Amino acid sequence: MNLTRCAWAANVQPFYQEYHDKEWGGPVHEDRQLFEMLVLEGAQAGLSWETILKRRDGYRKAFHNFDPMKVARMTDAKLEGLLLNPDIIRNRLKVFGARKNAIAFRAIQKEFGSFDAYVWRFVDGKPKVNRPSSTNALQAQSSESDALSRDLKKRGMTFVGSTIIYAYMQAVGLVNDHSANCFRSAGS
Fold it and tell me: Which of 5, 39, 155, 169 has its CA 20 to 30 A from that of 116?
């Protein structure tokens, strides 16, 4: 079966198409998955998303399957050891940032009952649906990503600039940017 996909997912590696077909733009409400994508989007800063997806399993192993409580408790020695791990991006700021973000993530969970309850407030509890006509029509940030970025920074997170957060919002379905002709545009 030949599916019409968003242009960025049309002629790519099968694992990248699978990410588009099964994940990207679909609403996520599970805190561990929300944390996973936050770490991965931060790791992606300055790199391609394909580079990160190729290392996703390595990140899962390195960061306790993205259990925010376990990541928040990682020691400096454990994080230093990860800087030698070829299965992840070995950038000191990003590796140590994962723990910093896990600590802030846990504080948000405590304050709001879940990260899900917190983050979905920025789009009034339902996905913001856009239907870009082409990849060039995709935006890189929005007033919602600006607001979420500011709030996450205020709470002590790192690698959460508005552009990174907009990509995060797309990834976890806070924003649905599947193109109008994509098979996933109707119901991600």
Answer: 5
